[in-house]
Amino acid sequence: MSWNWDVAKDFLPELGKGLLITLEATALGSVLAFALGLVWAMAFRSPTRFVRWPVAAVVEFIRNTPLLVQLFFFYYVLPTWDIKFSALTTGVIALGLHYSTYTAEVYRAGIDGVPKGQWEAATALSLSRGRTWIAVILPQAIRRVVPALGNYVIAMLKDSPMLALIGVVDMLQKARAEGASSFQYIEPYTMVGIAFIVIAYPASLLMRALERRLGH
Amino acid sequence: MATETDHTNPAVDGSELIRFDQVTKRFGSNTVLDNLDFSVSSGKHVTLIGPSGSGKTTILRLLMTLIKPDEGTIKVDGDYLTHEDRAGKLVPAGEKHTREVRKKIGMVFQQFNLFPNMRVLRNITEAPVNVLGLSKDEAETRARELLDLVGLGDKCDAYPTQLSGGQQQRVAIARALAMRPQVMLLDEVTSALDPELVAGVLDVLRDIAHTTDITMLCVTHEMNFARDISDDVLMFDSGRVIESGPPEKIFTEPEHERTREFLSAVL
C-alpha cells in the first residue's frame, strides 16, 4: 500500500469540516469544564459539609469512571428518560462534565495557594462571602492556574475523537467514512493524526511558556 | 443620594466599647486564654504587651471573628459578637449578625494583607462601596483623603507589590480607616518591616491616635510607641492579664515580677 496524493487531496475538504466540529466540541467542552470545575472547587470550600460531601462524592465518581462509559450512558440512557440532545451536545456535556472533575482539582490548588491573610483581610473589611470570592480570591487563584487549565484543553482535544463513537461527525468520523466508501485508509487516518499534532504541539509549547512566565 | 454620611463615632464618654466575659480559647490542648475578663472604654488606646504566646494576638483575632471563643462571650458596643440574644437565650450568632457587629471593627495585620490584584485606590474603596454602600465617587474621594493622610497621595494607581513594606502598611491603615471603624485592632503592625520603615508607620498611627477618637487596641513590641499613644497598658502572661495601668506606671514602676522581667528583656 502506498501513499496516494489524489486521495489526500480529495479528503482535505472533509478533514476541514471535521476539524471545525473537533474544535467546536473542544471549545464548548472547555467552557463547560472551566465553569463546572469552578463550581465544584468552590463547593469543596463550603462551610457546610452537606454541600462538601455530596459534591466530593460525585466528583470522585465521575473522575474514576471512563469518559467513554459516561459518553455512552448519556447517549443511550438519557433519551430513555426523555432527555434528548443532539450527538454533539451530548458529547460536549460528557466531555465538559468529565474534565470538570480535573479542572476542579486545578482550581482547588489555585484557591489553596491564596494566602490565608487574604481571607482574613476580607473578613476584617466585612466583605460578603460572594464578594470575597469574586473580588479577592478567584482573581488571584485563577491567574496561577491558567497554564494547568490550558493543558486540560489539550487533553480534551485529544479525547474528542471518542465523540465519533456516538456519531459526531468530527475528524475521526470523516476518516472512517472515507475509509468505508473508498477503502483508502492510510491517507485519511494519517492526516487526522497530523491535524492533531499540528494543533496540540504548539498549544502545549504555549502552555509551557505561559507556565514559565507566571513563575511556576 | 445620601450626602456625606458622616457616621460620627459615639461620644467619647468612656462607655464600655469592648467587653470580654470569661473568655477561654484553646488550640488543641493548649489553653491560650483562660477565663479572660477585660474591657476597653470608648476612645481609649490600649496596648497589650507580654511574651509571645501569651494570648495577645488571640484577643485581636477573636474580636475580628477570625477565630471563635471556646467559652465565654464578647460584646462590642453593647452587642454580642459571636452570640445572639434570642428571647433571653444566648445562641451562637448567624453570619449576618456577626457581620453587622464586626463592621464596627477594623484591623491592620502584621503582613499587611493588601489585595495584590487591586490597585491601591481600589484596595481602599472595595469595602466602602460593597459593604457600606458608598458611591464609587464618594469612596474614591475619601480614599484619596486617607492616602494623603498616610502620606501616599501619589500612589493611587500603584499595585501593592510596587510599594515598600512601610508604604503597604500605610495603605492597609488607610484601608481600615475607610470603613470608619469605632475600634482599630493593630496586630504587630511594624514587626514585618525593615527597621528604617518602622518610624513612618508609627508616625501615621500616632497622628491618628492623637487626632481622632477611634478606640485602639494594639499589640506591639515597640515600647516607646506604646508609651506614647496608650492610655492603658495590659500585661499578659499565660492567657491572663497580670497587671494593667497607665504606661507611666507600667513602664517605670511595674508591680509584678513577670512584668519587670519582660520589660527588662525588651526595653
TrEMBL record, chain A:
Segments traversing the membrane: 20-43, 189-210
Keyword Transmembrane: yes
GO BP, sorted A to Z: amino acid transport
Compartments reported by the entry: Cell membrane
InterPro entries for the chain: AA_ABC_transptr_permease_3TM, ArtM/GltK/GlnP/TcyL/YhdX-like, Ectoine_EhuD, MetI-like, MetI-like_sf
Entry keyword annotation includes Cell membrane: yes
Membrane topology according to the record: Multi-pass membrane protein
Protein name, per record: Ectoine/hydroxyectoine ABC transporter, permeaseprotein EhuD
Keywords from the UniProt entry: Amino-acid transport, Cell membrane, Membrane, Transmembrane, Transmembrane helix, Transport
Domain of life: Bacteria
Gene Ontology terms: cellular component: ATP-binding cassette (ABC) transporter complex
GO molecular function: transmembrane transporter activity
Organism: Streptomyces iranensis
CDD domains in the record: TM_PBP2
PROSITE patterns: ABC_TM1
NCBIfam families linked: ectoine_ehuD, HEQRo_perm_3TM
UniProtKB/TrEMBL annotation, chain B:
Domain of life per record: Bacteria
Primary localization: membrane
Subcellular location(s) per record: Cell membrane
InterPro entries cross-referenced by the UniProt entry: AAA+_ATPase (IPR003593), ABC_ATPase_HisP-typ (IPR030679), ABC_transporter-like_ATP-bd (IPR003439), ABC_transporter-like_CS (IPR017871), Ectoine_EhuA (IPR014343), MetN_ABC_transporter-like (IPR050086), P-loop_NTPase (IPR027417)
Keyword check for ATP-binding: yes
GO molecular function annotations of the record: ATP binding
Membrane topology: Peripheral membrane protein
Pfam families referenced in this protein's UniProt entry, alphabetically: ABC_tran
Segment forming the signal sequence: none
Keywords: Amino-acid transport, ATP-binding, Cell membrane, Membrane, Nucleotide-binding, Transport
Residue ranges occupied by any ABC transporter domain in the UniProt entry: 18-263
Tagged with keyword Nucleus: no
PANTHER family named in the record: AMINO ACID IMPORT ATP-BINDING PROTEIN, GLUTAMATE_ASPARTATE IMPORT ATP-BINDING PROTEIN GLTL
Family statement: Belongs to the ABC transporter superfamily.
Name of the molecule in the record: Polar amino acid transport system ATP-binding protein
